[in-house]
Amino acid sequence: MNLFLINILLAVGFMIALESFTLATLFTGMVVGYMALWLTRPLYGDDRYFQRFATIVRLVIFFIKALVISNLRVLRAVLAPSQISRPGIIRLPLDARTDMEIMLVANLISLTPGTLSIDVSEDRRNLYVHVMFLEDVDDARRELKEGLERRVLEVLR
Amino acid sequence: MIEWLAAVLLLLGCLFCLLAAVGLVRLPDTLTRMHAATKAGTLGAGLILGAVAVLFGDIGTVLRTFLVLIFLFMTVPVGAHLIGRAAYCSGIRLSSRTWVDHLREDLEGKDKSER
Q1: Are residues A28 and A92 in the same domain?
Q2: Do A116 and B31 touch (CB under 8 A)?
């Protein structure tokens, strides 16, 4: 996380050098600083910062996409509730182990429309998820595991 | 141009908030209602905040809308989870279209093994 701090300092320096304290300059400074750090990355020994940055960006993009798509599905269900919605509560075996990982996975699942985490089993190995559009249990499980959980774990580990 | 973008974001946000309200009335049980209420609401609020950020565009406003969004995204799922869990544990009737319930299976399985 040290490189992140340097990146911010570079961005602030960029703002001072240009004497322009706006959000756009800060953003440009972050991007320019990131590229400068990336060019000189053999100096820092570990490139975890760059890998982690990429996984965070992937998670955010994936999450926004999921948010919009499933909101549209909820919209359809609200307009015609009798036809589409086939809800169910499924057991999702967790790969996440620590409380932090489980919390993030459960919260992101809750945030995506169409899925709501109800409970965690006492041994913390299963998450119970209420799925609004459940066609096939295994498909839904795979979607949650490959999509959200894998990406969250990539960011945290 | 900026005004148009803000107007579109604002209208979309309002649409999703309306959708959340309609869903609260029309969906069959507490858990499906939670889906509509919390999530469409989050996206709706997010779009409206986005409209504000685009329209004002200065660093203070943008940072504040960003902060509001972060707090929303941190608190909404916790609330939704707890309401859903409380509803489930107090034994609400699930919609008749619910066709899988692993949580009930596991809870009942545990009851039997304890006896």
Answers
A1: no
A2: yes
